[in-house]
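Budget justification note: compute hours in this period were largely spent on complex prediction jobs such as the one shown. Inputs:
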Amino acid sequence: MTTPPTPQAPSQRQAPAPQYSPQPAPAGAYTSPIPVRRATLADAIASEWTKIRSVRSTMWTLGVMIVLLLGIGLLATIAVNTVDSDPDPDLGSTPVLSLGFFGVLLGSICVITLGVMTIASEYSTGMIRTTLTACPSRARVLSAKAIVFFLLTFVITTVTTALVAGMHTAFIDSAAPSAGDWLRATVGVGLYIAMLGLLSLAVGALVRHSAGAITVMIGVVLLPLVLAMFMFAESLSDLRLALFQYSIPSQLSALYSTSVADSGPSGWDPLWIMLGITAAALICAFASLDRRDV
Amino acid sequence: MIEAVGLTKRYGAKTAVSNLSFQVRPGTVTGFLGPNGSGKSTTMRMILGLDQPTSGHVTIGGHPFRSLPNAPRQVGALLDAKAVHGGRSARNHLLSLAQLAGIPAARVDEVLGVVGLQDVARKRSKGFSLGMGQRLGIAAALLGDPQVLLFDEPVNGLDPEGILWVRNLMKMLASEGRTVFVSSHLMSEMALTADHLIVIGRGQLLADMNVKEFISVNSADFARVRVADGLAERREKLTASLTEAGGRVMSEPDGALRVTGLPLPRISEVAHDSDVRLWELSPHQASLEEAYMRMTQSVVDYRSTADQKAGLQPPADHGYGQPGYGASQPPVLEAPQQNWYAPPPPGQNPPAAAPAAPSTTTADLTERDTSEDAR
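Corresponding output:
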């Protein structure tokens, strides 16, 4: 062999110089006339991009998300302007950008669905066997999926939240948000939602079943808050507060500088929390993909 | 070259593949035969590193699949024709695989042409028939122009024209010096396509030999010889003379003799010389299909039984004359069903033939059903 057999480690080069190596056939007479080139992570990313853009569920989930974000943002604008018939409407102490929260919370369900489907649909169709035959490196397949999905949802969420934020600041009179507020409400929310989607992708790789993984993820998002609402016992008040502070909707609202609890994560904290959880889940997903039978 | 050594796979208490060792050589089509559930697909998945063997190992060209350099350019596989995302067009499906393997996109249109799907390339594969799905799967296997090819049941669902095409494709691929490993449960198909056969049953190796060798060993023709009734000592005398003359003699339950290794005129001569009167001297031929059925009859996992429709039939004494549809065979037809299958080949008594021949009518029925099932 002229090249070392290390396809397990994905090559990180993004622009591969095509290596036309005269690969000797191991034990047979047939040699393909098509030049042999070592596949890289960039090839896997191109492949995942083809996969994600060529199924309708991508268009549907992301389309519905954009409609939800813009539609709910518009509704919020109209509602605030109608109810507050004062000639000089103001939201009191509530930051104007936080009106985008409602749309993002609903839209996150679309991202969860797409994240799960990105990998679980391969298991439900059996496509994963074909994929892993075409690329035996599990690390490369999972990384490519994660990168393509993350970039796609990050860009779409960020652009849409920026549009909604622009609409709110333009049509609702209020204190002008600072540059930090703007950044958190657009890029911050975009990163947070894209990472939530990655977490779903990891859960999809672990559960290997679309409906099961989507159910798990919706439970993860909504259950802590619902549980906390019904925790009336005094001795549970600490747990109740922690659930309120660290539930995913609360973390999301912290990015908008509002929160159900007065304490808890603030500023960019939610991003670091989500980063940690997502990284851990992706490591588990890789271990599962690497060890378990397909 | 695919090489399996002591390959074993257990799922909990069930052993799917047990201590399987074989080699698949380049330049020939190797058929992989076995009844449903005998472990063919599990073995294929282990070859491709999709399932980890419980013990043993399998290599392709000396490497385990997962550490093979440029795996998709060396190995192509069709595992399951339905293993595609139905919402994706045939072309996009192949394009994503080509990109993943670092194969130029122009190759996609080439293989679509090879399998004859160019007209439906942009249609979603959800609407494909099973035969079109098989063609798409074969296209995916050919994408990397690999030197090792695995096909799991490639002719399922194909029309006769498609079956002929697959047969010729396999032969052509092998003649180019590639290793072609094709699984099937149809002996008749493999007899036409394969050069070499690996037969498994319940995860164990039953045969690993050349097709010609398999035919000569397994489809031995025999002559049935019946001597005049009630003359046991005459029969023994004839048996001795025939054995002396170089034949192999086995006795059937009803007293007939089964003779292999001697032509009919010679048997007649021997009988004449030893002064034994014959009531029957008839030639019998066993097909390869029968040989395969006999070899695997004891390792069939999913065996159908007669549909009794018990309790659903109207009472028999209603003057309809005919017995119910599902009534068991009338005892008149009882015959030694052992001759349903060819005799065990001389000198080689595979484990499959070891169990005593079925003797009850119900067992005969189930066997009959099984054989029809597999045809």
